[in-house]
Amino acid sequence: MEHEEERQRLLSSLREQGIGEKVLEAMSKVPRHFFIPQKLQSAAYYDSPLPIGDKQTISAPHMVAIMCDLLGIRRGDVILELGTGSGYNAAVLAELTGPEGHVYSIERIPKLAESAKENLQKAGYNNVTVVIADGSTGYEKHAPYDRICVTSAAPSIPKPLIDQLKNEGIMVIPVGQYTQRLLLVKKNTEGSIEETDQGGVIFVPLVGKYGFHIRE
Ligand code: SAM
Q: Is the pLDDT of residue 216 over 70?
C-alpha cells in the first residue's frame, strides 16, 4: 500500500505513546493521505496537524488517537462528531464502531463538508453521515449518542451536548480560549456528569451559538 513505511513508523510511535491496540488497528486501516491536500501528501503520516483550507486543520494523529482511546468506542456505537474538517477523524471513529454503528459528523463550513464527503467516499466509509450545520447545538435528529467527539475548542461544555449524550455515554471535548484543556465527560446511569481533565491541548475554536462568536 502507498505510504506503508511512513504509516508503520507512525503507528509504532503511537504504540510507544501508550495508545491502545483497538485504536491502532483502526488507524492502520484509514489511509490518512486520502484526507490531506495534494500538495501536502509527503507529510500525510507526520504526527502533526496540517492545514486543510479555510484556516482549518486536520488534527495530529496522536490527538486523534488519544481522543478515540478515551472514548472507548464499542462496535455498534452511535457517535456524534463536531468538526468534520477533512473527514479523517470521522473515518477512524467509523472503523471503531464498525458497519453496525454510525457516525454523524457536523461541519459548519460547506466547502470542507463537501470535500470530507468525497474523501470518506473514496476511502469507502458508508457509515458516516456528514451534515452542514452549527454543531455547537448538537444534532438532535439522532440523539441520544453513545459517544460524542468534539474536535474544536468550546468556551465551556455546550448544554445541548450533555443533553444529547446517553446515560453511561462518554464525550471528549477541548475547552478554553487562550489555554485549552481536554475534558473527558462521563454521564452515569442516573444522568449526572463527571468531568476529568486530560491535559493541555491546542484546537481551532468551535464557532457558533454555544461556541465562540467570531466575526468573519
Ligand atoms: N476532525 C477533523 C479532521 O479529522 O480533519 C479536524 C477538525 S478541525 C481541528 C475543527 C473543525 O471544526 C473545522 O473544520 C471547523 O470548521 C469545525 N467547526 C468549528 N465550529 C464548528 C461548529 N459550530 N459546528 C461544526 N463544525 C465546526
A: no
